[in-house]
Amino acid sequence: MIIPRSTNYEQLLGYLSTLKERVAANKSAHQIASEKSRKLHVGLQVAVIILSALVGATLFASPAGFVKNLLALVSLLAGIIGSLQLFIRPAEAAASHKLSASLFAGLEREVEVLAASPPKGTDKLLAAIDNLSSKLIYASMHSPAVSGVPHDLILSPTR
Fold it and tell me: What is the phi/psi pair of residue 17, to 5°?
């Protein structure tokens, strides 16, 4: 966040409020992305298990003709879904987003503590906000990309 050095104490409290909104938006975005990735992982895993079990169970009946060709397609589909799961890696994405959400939750607590009892004096408050802004930038740079984040709120230097 770019804050002019000529900013007064009340304006700094407004910047602190904006910082809190940015951190909360990042935390929420990563929580949502983590849940979506987890659901994708479970859905793909269940599909592979069901399709593989269907093929395996039906092969014991010694099918012929159309059923045998259909089983081959279902088996191929299970393989494609399994490969897709390895390529997309939704479990890793879910874990990464969950870790980022935890990081932003910690930052959110720091901002709330600072907002609850801000230091006296413009220079001290400015230094504390600069410190939190640096932590937000670091966390954002080391977090996976998230779609659907209100980028105007997250990335704009001022609001």
Answer: -65, -40
- Cα–Cα distance, 115 to 131 (Å, whole number): 14
Q: Determine the average pLDDT of the residues in 41-47.
A: 90
How far from 88 is each of 46, 70, 96, CA to CA, in Å?
16, 27, 13
Return the SS3 of 41.
helix
Structure tokens belonging to residue 73: 């397609």
End-to-end alpha-carbon separation of the chain, Å? Answer: 10
What's the chain's average pLDDT?
Answer: 84
The 10s digit of each residue's pLDDT in 4-40 is: 666 788 888 888 888 899 899 899 999 999 999 999 9
Question: DSSP letter string over 75-108?
Answer: HHHHHHHHHHHHHH-HHHHHHHHHHHHHHHHHHH
Q: Distance between CA 5 and CA 8 in Å, rounded? A: 8
Length of the chain: 159
Distance CA 46, CA 25 (A): 32
Q: Could you count the other beta carbons within 10 Å of the beta carbon of residue 48?
A: 19
Q: What pLDDT was estimated at residue 150? A: 52
Indicate if the pLDDT at residue 154 is higher than 70: no
